[in-house]
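ingest -> validate -> predict -> emit
validate: passed (alphabet ok, no gaps, 488 aa)
predict: started
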Amino acid sequence: MQKPKTLNPFKFFFSKEAEEGYVPNRELFASSAALAGQNASYGMISQWLNYFMTNVLYINAGSTGTMMGIVRVWDAINDPLVGTLIDRHKFKNGNKLHPYLGKLAIVIGLLTALMFVDFGVPETAAMLIIFFIYIAWDMTYSFQDVALWGMMSLITPHSEERARVSQWINIGAGAGGAIAGAVPFFLGMTEKIGTTERTMLLLCAIVFGLGGELISILAMKTKERVEFVAPPKQSLWQDLKEVRYNRTLILLILAQLTNAISGCIPWIYYFKYCVEINIGGHVINGETTQTIYGILIGALGTVSMFFAVKIADRIGSMKKLILLAQGGNVIIRVIAYFIGFDTIPQMLAVIVLMAIGNIPITLVTIAQKALLSDSIDYMEWKTGKRKEGITFSLQNLTSKMTDALKSFLFGAIFTALHFDAELPVQTDLFLNAQWPLFMLLPALASFLYLIPFVFVRDNKEQKAQIEKDLAERHAAELEQKAADPAQK
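emit:
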């Protein structure tokens, strides 16, 4: 008698594991958890270092923005150098990225925590300490970051499978970002538990920064499944020139750079200084309100990440998903701006709108990474060279240049608005500017993003042909190696 088939409750989310080149679920979970840990650590730096400098160390906003802008420009320039080094090197075990996923995490975690230590020194000395720690952090983080995201291209040779991998590692990355987004809740509790923001931020940096990086070591459980042949040595300039064949990468870089104004003013400033809820005499401070707001608008988007690939298939492509997300973000934010955020009914209306708009917006990163991984196949198809390192490093360069622009904009805007963290009450100029900055700047950013992005190509038939041609090419290379044992 034939044994009845057991229903797999995860079948809706996962594809077959037995077929060659597909990724086992245990690797998906390891990758997802690793990205969650890494992004919890990165979130402490990207979301809270500015605030630590202005509101704990009392460094003025102009100096903070300028210094962070400078280190993030270096951070961005450093990435292509790292990517080129990675592309040129093949380890003895045949791996390209895997060895960068282990011990580096411990160093990165310790440096993350160190950046939130108040050494009790004057402003200039405090800035220099953070500057040098950040440079050391960036050098190690760049290798880990390029390797973590680059594994998405090497973990499988199949385009559809990479979309699934992108979905799950971005779920992990989103979860890590959400963890760092819980910091306002802990800041809102400081008075009740009798501690200071200085102590609380350091504790968060240890738990989320160091702890998150230790979790990221789980990426060591993944496997490279695409054969890597180290390319002939050539100059960095020649490596960069070959990027011209990667049209998708170039257009995504332009789109993300135009998106730089989104988020240049962290949420904490609007909620801390402009929001307070009084319900029946019970006052909820701005920091706690920010946590509640973030959870409510992010819940639907988080759930939708589990269905990203199926949503993209239903819509027609990853490109159409991004067009829907960015276009919808413009419309929804303009409507929300005119509704306002002053009363409970207004707040609820805005939260409902933002929660709906956040569904496709949450999926943008998944779609971008899937398109980027496919573009690496296209580049190899055109040039015969596989460039995970330079491709993902240029993507990282773009993200960091965007962060640098945000830092410069933050410093310039807050200086113009006469922000002073040591004042108990900010000026009317500052307070009146916060709602339009909070709600409309991201809308403008989404509009600008669409201008270059509409020219991205996302053709299923072409991707299938490229995958077929590369599979045949790789098989021929393996046959040639088997016939000539002396060939490395």
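The CA atoms of residues 45 and 72 lie 11 Å apart.
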